[in-house]
# Entry
Amino acid sequence: MKENIKMLSCLLMISIGAFAQKDKIKEAQSLFDKGNSQDALAILTKTEYLILNASDEDKSDYYFLKGNVLKDLAVKNIDAANNFTLASQSYQDVFLYENESGKFKWTVKANMALKDMKASLVNGAMADFKAGNFKESAEKSYKVYLFDKKDTLNLCNAAASSINAKDFNAAVTYYELLKKINYSGKGVLYYATNKKTKEEDTFISPKARESAIQQGLYEKPRTESIPSKRIEINSNLAYAYLEKKDYPKSEAIYNYVLELNPNYIDAYINLAYLKLQMKKDLADEISALGTTPAEMKQYDKLNARKDDITRSAIPYLKKVLTLEPKNPDATKTLLGVYRSLDMNTEYNALKAGM
# Structure
């Protein structure tokens, strides 16, 4: 008898919890309908523990509403990148529970919301980039990539935005990931002009474009080849490592860039800059030395090494001037190198040729 009473009490508690959860969902839905998404989210967050013992159908209702609330906050640019991610997770829960229950009440709408979210996040990343908010743009682009890893262009955009934001740690992470997935960016774009809007739209394939043209919706088809971005990706990665003072990795990647294109001037200039940055770091180390016999000995060793590193920049700068004889940056830098090494003959010859 006591066991029956305990079981009845347990069932009663579960039943009460289910009713409480439904009431809270209704309350949150009402607030959401009135535009109070933050208050709705607060209620859903506080009562999420109640959903654990609910039916799959009730769980689906809960997570669909939570996804909608988070999506609304993100669209309003309230912690957009994070809220889009959380909204995506909630919609994925909708798919999970409706698949288990076999009752697909919200699946179609949740899928449409996910597609709309992706478009909003992409547009938000573009708007941030144009406004100079590069860090925010990078975060949003990376969230889109995590959302749809087949769309690797968003990872490339995240990397480029991180470079502009001078967030070199993030840039290295994203560019290394691009290399890992063997991203090149090479491809073909299929365009046609919308007869109604007079604007060009892209199509996923020539067949899709041809179908739209045959329906009379589009005209003026145009195909554009996209060149490989492999050199750009590796060059930017090398630059990010350079800014992080990881000189060996930076130098190795710049050398790889020159294997891809032996006439890539920026790589030669940046390799020379790398050497001069190494020289500067050594100069700072030398200036911190004292006057003890051991430190004076260290001074001579470091000073000789400093000159060797400075001298190693010369071939890169001369190569630039071979490819582009009037390059002002290379000329100015090489003059400075010659002067610092007391290479007067070379200095005067270069100066006379200006």
